[in-house]
Amino acid sequence: MKTSENAKNARLLKIVVMNDLHLVAPGTAAPRMDTTARFEAALRNASERHGDADLCVFAGDITDQAEPDAYQMFDRMRAGFPVPQCVTLGNHDDRNVYLSCSQDAETDSNGHVQWRRDIKGHCVLVLDSSEPGEERGGFPPLKLAWVASQLADARRLGLKAIVILHHNPAALQMPVDTYRLAAPGELLAVLKDSGADILQVVAGHCHISSAGSWGGLPCATLAGNHHRVEPFLRGRNGRQECYEGPAQYGVIVSNGSDCAVHFESYVGEAEPMDGALFPKKVDQRFEEL
């Protein structure tokens, strides 16, 4: 039975997404909370629960102030994490600083920190939405051309596409929309015009968990490692509350047809209820693939 289950799981794509780490250089004041300890908790939790993942994406705002020592600490901390990894950047990062001190930085032909990984029938595109000096980032023509070429190739190969970036592109109908991805329609047009089968778009930046659609594409956002904001929808005024927890990473699971995004809390997680209340939750069966 175990061998059979392993064979089934081998066909499932699993991606861990960690975002908005906001690490600071050792010995400096943490931004309102100990983000280093929280990142340690994230790596420990993901190692225990998702050490079988195919990929871990660190989706931007790796640091809070783009300090070289913070990037170097980031590399040291993740060195023992037993999952293949890739990194992209956010508005709190500095591309030149990151590239100068990262151990394994990878860029596209134009120097943007963008990646592609083909895994289990999927094309995973990790996009660099950061732009120097721009809080809202963006996708100038060179970036868009790279995205278009990768999606054209994915379509030719019959691969399902999953897109991961830092800046949230979809409107959440909250004040955070004022600093979501700049000109999101330009990227959306490239994604849709490609004809590729895009299963999911995942982003960070807005510090809130959400699921919905962006121009017809499934789109989710992750609260990440730093503070979380409450839903603050149109019609409200006054203070939007911010919370220390739960800190969260995402887990994307896809069989090529059904794609799910799960939200894993690792700081501020609720205490489990008495297991005796839910006897059916022990050794449960999974749906046949």
Low-confidence stretches: none
How many strands in all? Answer: 13
Determine the number of helices (DSSP H or I, runs of at least 4 residues). Answer: 6
Major sheet: arrangement of strands: 4-5-6-7-9-8
The geometry reads as globular
Q: Structural class of the helices, strands and pairings?
A: alpha/beta
Q: Averaging pLDDT over every residue, what do you get?
A: 93
**What's the level 1 CATH class?**
Alpha Beta
How much helix is in the residues?
Answer: 10-25%
Question: How much strand content do the residues show?
Answer: 15-25%
Order of helices and strands: HEHEHEHEEHEHEEEEEEE
CATH architecture assignment name: 4-Layer Sandwich
Number of domains: 1
Distance between the termini: 14 Å
Biggest beta sheet summary: 6 strands, mixed
Q: Could you name the CATH topology?
A: Purple Acid Phosphatase, chain A, domain 2
The fourth-level CATH homologous superfamily is Metallo-dependent phosphatases
Any idea what the radius of gyration is? 19 Å
